[in-house]
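Our platform keeps sequence and structure together, in a single record for each protein. Such a record has a labelled line for the sequence and another for the backbone structure tokens. This encoding replaces a full spatial description with a residue-level series of whole-number codes. Below, we set out a record of this kind in full and without editing:
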Amino acid sequence: MTSETTPSHAEHADSGAIDVRPPKRQVVAILGAASFLGENLIGMLEEDERIRRIVCLDIKAPRTAASRSRVYEIDLTQPSAEERLAEIFGAEGVDTVVHLAFLPSPAHATAWAHELESVGTLHVVNACRRTRVRKLVMWSQTLLYGAHPTNPNFLSERHPLRASRDEPFFLDKLEAEEEVLRFGNPGKGRIVTVLRTAPILGPNVDTFLTRYLGRRLVPTVMGFDPLWQFLHEADAVAAFQLAVVRDAPGIYNITGDGVLPLHTVIRLVGRTAFPLPRTVARAMAGALWIAQLGEAPPSFCDYLQYLCVADGRAARQKLGFVPLYTSREAVVEFGSAQRLRDVRLLSERTA
């Protein structure tokens, strides 16, 4: 870690948006370029006249890279990643970095995940410090607020991140966000924009949540029906494009409008809720996770019991982000795609 003092999340959350376009066409580096968010963001930036060049960084080439893109293979888990990144950023004249190299689902390979997300982010930030990068945009998640019985109806960017640090999936992302915020310390002349997205849903997304909702019988915790919110996959990509082309320092919750009870979500997807006593639900989740048959470790049962819903007003007011899809519309579109997959699977089995 660096010796720079870490400002509070509240200080960053209060940062006023400058909301002006950079004076020259940008050179944007995207880490995690071959991920769902990376490929779709590259596709949008390829058509954006404000972008001069896109530097695509991942362990494989993104399918959407075209005439404005230059592709480099890089593995953030390697000790040499910082040197390689600094070399590329300098040679390409990168001024904006978009850091999307985070796992959308928990991994059993926790040591590797730590090297990718926590240590990998340190490599990214140090390479930015050594070069002329003026802006760093990072993907984070509203799940990091944690699901707690004392949560208010809507969590703003000023609320602390209380997700369990005993869960590696959360800890690595918390450490990464803290490191990125250090890079944006006031007086350094740098811009840091952190987008905390609500759970992303859509016909093309594959995460632990889509696999959970894709079960025929969806386990729930008996006696609990927490409110959930979602972000449509198209709105998620649009939010990152805004963060690239506008200077809006700070932390922003990126959410779809509206909330839905969990049992309503399951019904809209065309599945059946399978309520279990809390102790049974946790024990089953733990056993399935150990056997590598479950979507997530038992700590995620908290989200089946308690509220974790974020307030997206700051993104609307300062970043200019207005979602095209509500949470309900994101669920309905995901459910339609899921039913089509079910029909195809049935056809293949009966052919």
